[in-house]
């Protein structure tokens, strides 16, 4: 982690005020990248993350933007490009999980944020992305297998992100932009089901061979790899960080 292999890069991390987004922002900053994180309601947490990033000697900002609002997404991406001169790395981490909520409202919210919002952010970021850029999408193991009832809408949005990744890898290849996706298992964040719940115990005992949830930093390490020079010939790929749940 001592080598600043991203010292000339600008990274945009959506949903960077907590969880995988915050962990990824810290990893990228530790490697020398200037980092912009987005947030919706977590202003205090975003401020704390930005201060942590700046303490690593990089430029960092937090921008409030609702990923479900196309106008806000457009303004946010344009602001990043204007203030930092372009974008090299995009980490699509923002998302919402509404398990068991098979309602029109729940579905609309998850589609707006997890799918349409990811597409809107990506298409706008690519306009400002320099050659050799990296896009890392965060998806879920539920894109490949649903383990319980009530997750259909969320799983569908994440499966679409995985499909987008393969398509974008071809769409943006001529510009030297790599696009990959991480399908995460259960991450030990505030979005995860309780380990003590019936569902949590089922996942830990019967589904995940490693019998534990992942730490956000374990996913962030993969994000940093895919954003770096060692992943130059990797594009359109799915990396699973799920403790062997889909093995």
Automatic annotation (TrEMBL):
Keywords, alphabetical: Oxidoreductase
What InterPro entries does the annotation carry? KR_dom (IPR057326), NAD(P)-bd_dom_sf (IPR036291), Sc_DH/Rdtase_CS (IPR020904), SDR_fam (IPR002347)
Q: Is Oxidoreductase found in the keyword set?
A: yes
Q: Which Pfam families match?
A: adh_short_C2
Q: Which PROSITE patterns match?
A: ADH_SHORT
Record-annotated Ketoreductase domain positions: 9-190
Query: Could you cite one Gene Ontology molecular function of this protein?
Result: oxidoreductase activity, acting on the CH-OH group of donors, NAD or NADP as acceptor
- SMART domains reported in the protein's UniProt record: PKS_KR (SM00822)
CDD domains, per the entry: SDR_c
The family note in this entry says:
Belongs to the short-chain dehydrogenases/reductases (SDR) family.
Protein name according to UniProt: 3-ketoacyl-ACP reductase
Which species is this UniProt entry from? Answer: Winogradskya consettensis
């Amino acid at each position: 982690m001592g080598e600043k292999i991203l010292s000339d890069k600008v990274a945009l991390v959506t949903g960077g005020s907590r969880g995988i987004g915050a962990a990824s922002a810290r990893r990228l900053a530790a490697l020398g990248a200037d980092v912009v994180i987005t947030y919706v309601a977590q202003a205090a947490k975003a401020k704390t993350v930005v201060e942590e990033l700046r303490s690593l000697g990089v430029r960092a900002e937090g921008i409030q933007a609702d990923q479900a609002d196309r106008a806000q997404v457009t303004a946010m991406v344009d602001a990043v490009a204007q203030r930092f001169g372009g974008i090299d790395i995009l980490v699509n981490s923002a998302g919402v999980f509404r398990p068991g909520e098979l309602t029109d409202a729940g579905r609309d919210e998850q589609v707006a944020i997890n799918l349409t919002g990811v597409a809107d952010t990506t298409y706008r970021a690519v306009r400002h992305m320099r050659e050799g850029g990296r896009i890392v999408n965060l998806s879920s193991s539920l894109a490949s297998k649903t383990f319980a009832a009530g997750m259909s809408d969320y799983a569908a949005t994440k499966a679409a992100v995985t499909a987008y990744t393969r398509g974008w890898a071809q769409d943006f290849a001529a510009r030297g932009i790599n696009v990959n996706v991480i399908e995460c298992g259960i991450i030990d964040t505030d979005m995860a089901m309780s380990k003590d719940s019936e569902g949590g115990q089922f996942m830990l005992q019967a589904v995940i061979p490693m019998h534990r949830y992942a730490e956000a930093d374990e996913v962030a390490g993969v994000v940093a790899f895919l954003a770096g020079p060692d992943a130059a010939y990797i594009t359109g790929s799915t990396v699973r960080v799920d403790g062997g749940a889909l093995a």
